[in-house]
Amino acid sequence: MTPAISARDLRKVYPGDPPVVALDGVSIDIRDNEFFTLLGPSGCGKTTLLRMIAGFEHPTAGTLSMHGDNLLDSPPHKRPVNTVFQSYALFPHLTVAQNISFGLEMLGKPADEIKATVDEMLALVKMEAMADRQTSQISGGQQQRVALARALAPRPRVLLLDEPLSALDFKLRKEMQLELKRLQTETGITFIFVTHDQEEALTMSDRIAVMNAGSVRQIGRPRDIYDHPAERFVADFIGDTNFLAGEIVSTENGHAEVRLTSGKTVPAPAPEETQSGRKITLAVRPEHAGISAGSDGLLSGDLREVVYFGTDTHFHVALDDGTAFVVRRQNRPDVASDLQAGARVSVDFPPLTGQVLRD
Ligand SMILES: Nc1ncnc2c1ncn2[C@@H]1O[C@H](COP(=O)(O)OP(=O)(O)OP(=O)(O)O)[C@@H](O)[C@H]1O
């Protein structure tokens, strides 16, 4: 199927002394009807890529197409794309309904069609009761809904969302995350969402592109990216991770046998054939590991600190090779923890849960 958006080797260099390489050869295919997230730290090029799709920036090199048609020759207003910005940019002197209808009037749509679309959009974002309120008299979360309704009203094929939830408080942001996902599913419009918040990306997206320093480091479904980060940057940026030194003993059929510094070996997924003897880093999520008293597990060390978080407890261990390792255990009323700081402990994790990282 032709992708909704296809970018090939996109490069953007902003002139200056020195010039800034904002995009350094980005290739991405975004599917039709997909909730696709560009995730990465500040300055990695997310907004530049979004602005390029909208038509506000032109690449220094590379190609960009939408549903198979070259996008780079069309001006922003000719692209079937709309953007929701972080600052909602609503007209404060107009009502909610007038804000939604404004763009449709500019497009010269007939009055009855505008009325029907505005009603439909008001229902979609659950703002029917506030249609006649001025947007200066509604809350931040409600303004965000109006901004979404306004952007969806002309039925763009692709909706670009540039950190649209970052101005909202924590609870509202959680609500709007679910709401955005619902809107995307109900409208079937391709959403391209920009955020530096990994949790936001994991909860809403069909797929995520993790970016760093102008390039895409990994593309995948949230679970694939979380469970199988391809490299250290991705493992570190998304969630918490323990990094263990190891050595490849052998690789076969996508699995590697990895020797840990304790001398014990553990199988781990390894997408590439890797030479035996090669030193690697194994990433292990804190919640995938277990801890027990004693020292006959996969790894052993000294328990340095036990930190209670309500929902779970974090055990900070100094492994015998000096590596710091955190085990996270979910708290349950029926499981008592008798491990105290100072104890000798074993750390274990099931086969195939550690991930061999690319350098
Ligand atoms: N108009 C411009 N002129 C010069 N440099 C720019 C311009 N716009 C962006 N940059 C630089 O390009 C790089 C990428 O910026 P971009 O805004 O795309 O990053 P971002 O990932 O969206 O960051 P943030 O999350 O902070 O918005 C940054 O180093 C930024 O300083």
- By DSSP (H or I, 4+ residues per run), the number of helices equals 8
Bound compounds, each kind once, are:
adenosine-5'-triphosphate
Helix proportion: 10-25%
What is the CATH fold-level name of the largest domain?
Answer: Rossmann fold
Strand content: 25-35%
Large-scale geometry: globular
The CATH architecture of the largest domain can be named as 3-Layer(aba) Sandwich
Low-confidence spans = none
According to CATH, the homologous superfamily of the largest domain is P-loop containing nucleotide triphosphate hydrolases
**Which class of secondary structure composition applies to the elements?**
alpha+beta
Q: Notable features of this structure?
A:
2 domains; binds adenosine-5'-triphosphate; 8 helices; five-stranded antiparallel β-sheet; ATP binding; ATP hydrolysis activity; OB fold (Dihydrolipoamide Acetyltransferase, E2P); Rossmann fold; alpha+beta; 23% helix; 359 residues; ABC_transporter-like_ATP-bd; six-stranded mixed β-sheet
Give a nutshell description of this structure.
The protein has helices at about 45-55, 95-105, 110-125, 140-150, 170-185, 200-205, 220-225, 230-235, and strands spanning about 5-15, 20-30, 35-40, 60-65, 70, 80-85, 160, 190-195, 205-210, 215-220, 240-250, 255-260, 265-270, 280-285, 290-295, 300-310, 310-320, 325-330, 345-350, 355.
